[in-house]
Structures are given as structure tokens and as C-alpha cells.
Task: structure prediction
Amino acid sequence: MTTSTKRKPEQIVDMSWDPITRIIGNLGIYTKIDFANREVVECHSTSSLFRGYSVFMKGKDPRDAGFITSRICGICGDNHTTCSNYAQQMAYGVKPPKLAEHITNLGEAAEYMFDHTIFQDNLVFVDFCEAMVKATNPGLLTRAERTSAPRGAVHGFKTIADIMKAFNPFEGEVYKEALKVSRVTREMFCLMEGRHVHPSTLYPGGVGTMPQPNTFTDYLSRLMHVIDFVKKAVAMNDDVFDFFYEALPGYEEVGKRRIMLGCWGAWQNPDVVDYRYATMNQWGKAMYVTPGIVVDGELVTNNLVDINLGLRIMLGSSYYEDWVNERPFVTHDPLGNPVDMRHPWNQTTVPVPQKRDFDGKYSWVMSPRWHHPQTGEHLALDTGGGPLARLWTTALSGIVDTPYVKATGSSVRISLPKGESLPETTLEWRIPKWSNTIERDRARPYFVAYAAAMALQFLEEAMGMLRSGDTKVYENFEVPDEAIGCGFHEAVRGVLSHHLVIRDKKIANYHPYPPTPWNASPRDIYGTPGPYEDAVKGQPIFEENGPDDFKGVDIMRTVRSFDPCLPCGVHMYMGKGKTLSTVHSPTYGASHG
Result:
């Protein structure tokens, strides 16, 4: 929508999508749409599920935390286990052997490749496929049929419409190939972490994976089998997304919000990390994805200590009692810095079920915010779906410099070797103009390439250690009487932190904060909307359908660009004596096919 366009009298229609499909069904998006001016004028993001992990973790043996928290999610459970182990290793004062870190990194790299591929190609791209575009923007499909695909020499498709057709669910060529790739990458994961998605070989202090030559060669052979698919995916996505910008002027406004991105870093550097809080700034910056917070395009900090101290868990529109008047668990961090009462170390979770009220409380998701020390703002950071924030903070930091991946200050260069059919290729993700729907989605295949490239380095280093006879993968430790720890990692869809307090060798307080509470949060105590709400409100509507047959494809593209995953956002609460019954049905419902 251009500012010069004269506005028409409003035609407001209430529309909701609850539950959002293609994810577990607990996310609802409630909007008011002005069909006369073709824009969303109001949006609320809701979640109807509470699960209470932070409640029932209390009193448990802290060594069980990784296994328990992996069950928070059936999608990114390994990310939780990894992050929990990081927090525990800080609390126990233990550093795993280098080979164990390489094995963990390889498992997480495979998880990124698996999850991003199946989400992008089998879930996100349904909104951009031929069938969907034909139903929502037939004029656009006609243009796509006569528009040549600029990167056809790489991916093999002649026109943009040919790519869209290849993503048709259950039938399209790329849709089906992506399912095969997701199987292979899951096999890669299991070679390192034992079981997908709840790892059986990751422990605080190391891993239980047996480091044998075939452990790594089997992983490598599978990686080389999918590496050309990764190159093609980047080319196909670039062609389709560039076409949308060109064919639909103004589409950059869809899902656009102020640039406020958070990344907590991924893949520890075994030569630097020791898990001590006192050195967290140093080993955080040595991670192979650089942590950081980007506001209005500028890097505010890439210091994990600063990031940790700025965490605030707000309420406002959430169904919980406040805890600010209770006694804190942690008053100061190990460096002597004061810890806020709204920090995860001090949070207490007391659910208060009640009727949904969009003028009051309407979601089980809390509202994580980051307190900007210079401006005093409580920023509603988003993750950009994960890859956008990771690439942006890494690019701006300019620290990562490996044989396969290099951050330049304005871009990330990714080098992939010759595959089965395509030559050695260097891809370059450049910092975009906007944080919007298309750029969140575009970043995803680039990060799959990033993960594949880093996996090659981890393999080389692990195999070198194996050849030298350095096969130690576990370090013993003792659980202290009292301790605190924090783990920072990247779940597939973005920032993940675990905060742990130990007293009398038991868990006294434990709070995991995955990406979904950040992205799906409701309005906080200051009235600040969460990222879903913010990105959808004010966005233009390009769908050609009217209110009677409106599918909301532009809104769904925006929400799905964040890679929503509600199990991590909220935790189940059943009360006394209630029975939960869960029924699963296919993507298009039980009646499809």
C-alpha cells in the first residue's frame, strides 16, 4: 500500500484462523481486515495450551533435565537436550572432550538440515505452490507461466510456474524429493545423537556415541548425497521470491516489522568453550554462528553476558500470576552483576486459567523481552524464523572465518564442494533491506547450506582426531550442592535458552525459553504486541479473493515465515482428573485423498 493512495471508507471484517494448520494445533490468529483498503488493521496471537515443565522440573535430579526437556517438543527436542546440557555443564563446572563437541555439532547440523528442509519445502512452500497461487492469485500464476526462471541452469526448471508446480503437495517433484532428503538427514542425525527427536546419546559431560570410522563416513556419504539438493533449493527459492517482489509491487510490506532480531549462537568451538560464566563472552563469540542482537539494522551486542542479563519475562496478556514480589532465586550473576526479578533465573510459574479476553488476557504464551540498556526499551525481539537472525548477526559480527563459511560484515559466504551433478558452488547471503515474510523464508535454504558446509568442517576435525587416537567422548563430574547455570543455543526456529538453579543437589528452578514464546508472545504489560501480531497488523492484502472465499494466504505466509511451533511456546495444564485425548489427521484433514 503506497502512502499516496487515497483511502476508501473502511470495510472491516473479523477473521480468524484457529488452529493454524500444518503445525500442532494450538496457535490462533485473530484479525480485523479492511477489505476496502486491502490491509490488516488488527491482530491478536493466541495459544490455548499450558504444560508446566517449569513447575514439575522442580525437585528433579538435574542430570535428568536434558532427557525431560527434550519432551517439550516433538520437533526440536534435541535442541532442548543440547541446550540443557550446556546449562548443566556450567553448573557442574565440566567441559566435555573435544570429540564430543564435534559429535554434538554434527547432530545439530543434521537437525537444521532436516527440519528446515521439511518445513520450507513441505509446509511453507504449500503457500507459494501452483495450486495455492491459482486459488488466491490466478493473475500472478498466469504471469509466472510466462516468466523464465533466471537460475534454471542450476535447478532445472524453465519457468517460475514450473517451480511452483514442483512444490504442489503430495504430487510435486520437489515436494517429494524434499521428503527423501528429510529421511537422509534424519539418518545423519541418528548416527550422532542416537534417536530422533529425543536424543539417547547426549549427556552433560559428553556423549555416548561410539566414535568409529564408519560413524563419520556414513554421515559424510549421506551429506554428499543431498548437497546438490541444497544448492538447487537456494536457487529455486531465490527465483520465486525475486519474482514475487517484481510481480507484486509492494509485497515487501507483507510481514514487515522493525528490525529487532535475536540470535543466541550455535555450534560450540571445542578449542575455546569451557562453559564458565566468567568466560562466556569469549566462548560465545567463538561459536560458529555468532550470537547477537540487531536493532534497526545495527548490531547492539554479541556478548552473551549482556544478552543474558537483558532477558525479561513479561506478562500483561498472559494467563499467569506475577512473581515480582517473591524472594529471588538469584540476585547476582557469577560476575557480580545484578539479576532482574523478571529474569528466567527468578521466574515462578503459577497458571491462572480464565476466559479469553482480547482487551485483557488471551494467551498461555508469556512475553519474553530484551531490555535495551541504552534506550530502556523492552524489545519484542523476533528470530526471523531462526535463519534470518542467525545469518544477520553472524554477517554483522564478521567473526566466523572457516574453510567453508566466512562472515564479511555485510554477508555470509558459504562454499559447498562438487556434488553428484553440480560443481563446487559458493553461495552468498547478503543482508536484506527488510525483516519481512519473504526474507525470513529466503534465509532458510541459505542456512541449510550453512549447516551442510559446517558439517564438512566438523567431520574433517572429528576424523582427524579419530586417526590420531583421540577418542575420548565423556568427562566425569559431580553435582554440586548449589549452583546456577545457563545454556544458550539455537533451536531450529531461533533462540533457545535454559536457566537452571540447583539447591541441595536438586533442581530448585528451571526455565527453558525457546523461540516460540519470543515470536508468538501476546501484548505485554506495556501494550507492546508480539512479533506475529506486529508483523501481521498493517500488512497489505494481495490475495484477489473477497471476504466470502478469502483464504488469508498473505497472513498465513507471514505467520509461517516465523516457523511456528507451539509446543515449545506453552506447556500443558490439565487440572485434576481430566483426560486428554489427542487425534492426529493429515495436512489437509482426515478427508483428504
